[in-house]
Amino acid sequence: MSATIKLSSPATKEFWEIPVLFEDEHLLALDKPAGLLTTPDRHDENRPSLMKLLLDGLAAGKPWARERNLTFLSNAHRLDFETSGVILLAKNKPAFITLADFFGAEKPLRKYVALAWGNPPEKNFEVDAKLAPHPVKPGQMCVNPLEGKKSRTEFEVLEQFSDWTLLRAAPFTDRTHQIRVHLKHAGFPVVADELYGGKKLWLSRLKKDFYLKPGKEERALLSRAALHAEELILPHPVTNEPITITSEWPKDLRVALKYLRQYATGPSRRGTQDEESEFAQE
To answer: Of these four, 122, 137, 166, 231, which has the most CB atoms within 10 Å of its CB?
Structure first.
């Protein structure tokens, strides 16, 4: 079977070639790109989403669906619009029900990498803070000790730079925007996560002799929330054998890390990312 699934949106004229990370007769794991919803937008039916594109392709008998003899496809979990990486789908209803139970249990099935602003003082730390929809900002979540749902994430520092930290995150619960809100709550918002106060990363703020040709406009090294679902570990829903599914770090994150390692290994140039300074994005 093909190692990629080709999807296109007639409404927006966008095209995706999505790698298959794992597949058997019961499961299909894909490498979701950043900038694609998992499920349809309730307010904009023309906005592309992975599941709508897949189900439309299945109904239309696209080659990737025919060669797999697919009649059912459902996602057992979601990734945010800007988050890339492993997403697992079930090819039949019994597998879907078992997967839903796995994701509902408090087990660290998933591991993410995140690039965040600031430097945590400890190599390993945990955020245990209840989350609820923001009372006045639609689409946002917030820490709410009284009305929020139980939410817990473990973090491990992988690499530190002058004003940024590369982290691995293991969420024990499955709440909307959990890792992003927990990192903001801890004081280390995800880079370019503007919904939760994380500013973009610019090479001009890293490289002292940065030069841009006249008439050219600088593009941010990271212009989407720097969060990637890198690993999923769980028992197979039918055989119960342990399976591990991994996704390589995306190009934008790898390029950002290359420049951080080259230009941001010295002491911090600011107290926090919110301070006004010559490095703050206008």
So the answer is: 166
Residue type, 36: L
Q: How far separated are the first and last CA of the chain, in Å rounded?
A: 49
Would you give the DSSP letter of residue 106? Answer: S
Has 80 been annotated as catalytic? yes
Distance CA(153)–CA(165), nearest Å, equals 17
Q: Is 205 in contact with 192 (CB distance < 8 Å)?
A: no
Question: Hey, is 5 helix, strand or coil?
Answer: strand
- Computed on alpha carbons and rounded to an integer, the radius of gyration of the chain in Å comes to 20
Host H or E run for residue 202: none
Are 210 and 204 within 8 A, CB to CB?
yes
Class in CATH terms, 1-104: alpha beta
Query: What is the DSSP secondary structure assignment for residue 205, as one 8-state letter?
Result: G
What's the number of CA atoms in the CB half-sphere (13 Å) around residue 80? 22
Q: Map residue 233 onto helix, strand or coil.
A: strand
Burial 55-88 (b: 16+ CB within 10 A, else e): bebbeeebebbeebebeebbbbbbbbbbbbbbbb
Residue 79 has pLDDT above 60, yes or no: yes
The pLDDT tens digits of the residues spanning 81-132 come to 999 999 999 999 999 999 998 888 777 689 999 999 999 999 999 999 999 9
Predicted TM-score (pTM) of the model is: 0.90
Q: d(Cα 56, Cα 155) in Å, to the nearest integer?
A: 38
CATH 3.30.2350.10 given to domain 106-273: yes
Token pair of 75 as six digits = 């996602």
Residue of 31, 41, 56, 80 marked active site = 80
Quick check: 193 and 227 in contact, CB under 8 A?
yes
